[in-house]
Amino acid sequence: MKSTLLYEGKAKKVYFVEGDSEKLILSYKDDATAFNGKKKSVFPGKGKLNNEISAAIFEYLQDQGISSHFVQKLNETEQLVYQTEIIPLEVVVRNIAAGSITRRLPIEEKTVFPKPLVEFYYKSDIWDDPLINDDHACILTGLSLHELKEIKDNALKINDQLRKLFAGINLTLVDFKLEFGKRKNTIILADEISPDTCRLWDKDTMEPLDKDVFRKGTGNLLEVYQELLNRLEAIR
Ligand code: 5GP
């Protein structure tokens, strides 16, 4: 089914599908990177965990009426998705202050925001994914302000659904990053949602079940990703 390689990113490879120009295959790698690729490691089995976690989350979101590129999980490390024209934006939603916002602004870690914040970053390794405003985002992507508002509204809806999902497995959704793409002139959710792209804290211990254990070197990445998958599977 898989044909030639279209693109290789830091965490995934993307392949064309033989005889189906509408779809692509995402193949999750075992590589972990942080700080725009400055910290790197390989964790055998990480690709399988993220494929399973991301597939479970996209299936849940589809059940809640959120349309995305996700079609189905194919095997341990691969999933079938609709091809989209990726919009070069990283859309970050924050419920609680952590990570870059606490370095950029005088906001203490663990501050709970009165309402979720949505931020846009320009997705570009050479520019180091800079934080941008709505007007910059329109110029850099060619989207209208109306389309940008649609993305923001969608990101907030996804936040509501994900908070419910994670609360059900005793986790607080601190923040996460989404990417969107255009398919047949409609903007849909794309890429992945996994512990690589979210901050998730255990509600009792406040311990992270996400990539921060690798970024900060404070825990075993495979163990915490497996724990997250176990909790998701327990409520399926
Ligand atoms: P921060 O801006 O604090 O670094 O990240 C905010 C949230 O978005 C975190 O959950 C983080 O995992 C996610 N995020 C931001 N940028 C990226 C990125 O380039 N790659 C990935 N995988 N996640 C990102």
TrEMBL record:
GO terms for molecular function: ATP binding; phosphoribosylaminoimidazolesuccinocarboxamide synthase activity. CDD domains: SAICAR_synt_PurC (cd01415). Pathway: Purine metabolism; IMP biosynthesis via de novo pathway; 5-amino-1-(5-phospho-D-ribosyl)imidazole-4-carboxamide from 5-amino-1-(5-phospho-D-ribosyl)imidazole-4-carboxylate: step 1/2. Its EC number is 6.3.2.6. InterPro entries: SAICAR_synt/ADE2_N, SAICAR_synt_PurC, SAICAR_synth, SAICAR_synthetase, SAICAR_synthetase_CS. Belongs to the SAICAR synthetase family. This is Phosphoribosylaminoimidazole-succinocarboxamide synthase. It comes from Compostibacillus humi. The lineage of its organism: Bacteria, Bacillati, Bacillota, Bacilli, Bacillales.
